[in-house]
Amino acid sequence: MSFDPASLTYDANGLIPVIAQDVGSDEVLMLAWMNAEAVARTLATRRVTYWSRSRQAFWVKGETSGHIQHLVELRIDCDRDCLLARVRQQGPACHTNRRSCFYTAIQNGDEVEILHPLA
Amino acid sequence: MSFDPASLTYDANGLIPVIAQDVGSDEVLMLAWMNAEAVARTLATRRVTYWSRSRQAFWVKGETSGHIQHLVELRIDCDRDCLLARVRQQGPACHTNRRSCFYTAIQNGDEVEILHPLA
What we know:
Chain A is mainly β. Chain A has one domain (about 10-90, about 100-115): Phosphoribosyl-AMP cyclohydrolase (Ubiquitin-like (UB roll), Roll). The first copy, chain A, contains 1 helix and 8 strands, in the order ββαββββββ. Chain A has one helix at about 35-45; strands at about 15-20, 30-35, 50, 55-60, 70-75, 85-90, 105, 110-115. In chain A, the strands form 3 sheets. In chain A, strands 2-1-6-5 form a 4-stranded mixed sheet. A two-stranded antiparallel ribbon of chain A has the order 3-4. The first copy, chain A, is globular and about 45 Å long. The model of chain A has no long low-confidence stretch (mean pLDDT about 95).
């Protein structure tokens, strides 16, 4: 079946959540959002392209920082309302310079930093 | 710092997206939603408890199917608007009886089933 971005289920703002996972480490790197055009651009260019909700603009991940996400495979969930982008991440994924945005864990009721910024 | 579910950033519906990842395989299993009370219940019981948007009710994952998610660690992202639940998944995570909800991949422009239902 040929894939059409319009066949996905978008929310009231026309967006779908996208989980980015590193193909080497299987680490979950971040969650961001795409609209249908961002999905199409990501597939066409193989450079993961989100829709920035704060800037209301396309956001080619790493365009400014150089921390590019090369798309290896895009996966769709059973409800077609979430995507999993399997990527090769260049440099840290997080704007705090950490490998992953999920660098805080709740341990014994306290917040603990489990990933430090890269040198 | 002691963790307070109210310190997270919820959307207009009072919900936060939660990625479930298996601690054994590192496979991304699913994405679902929690409200602040679901976060608190998940931490208190160690049984992952979502908020079902379709049923508008708490959803203790596996309560009906037996396909429980035991919480190993809950992680918070940099913007505090997404959670990563590291879980031990009992049985398949997907209601289609597949290990993961992300069982469709886009390959060469076509949709391909990459995971089959468990026997």
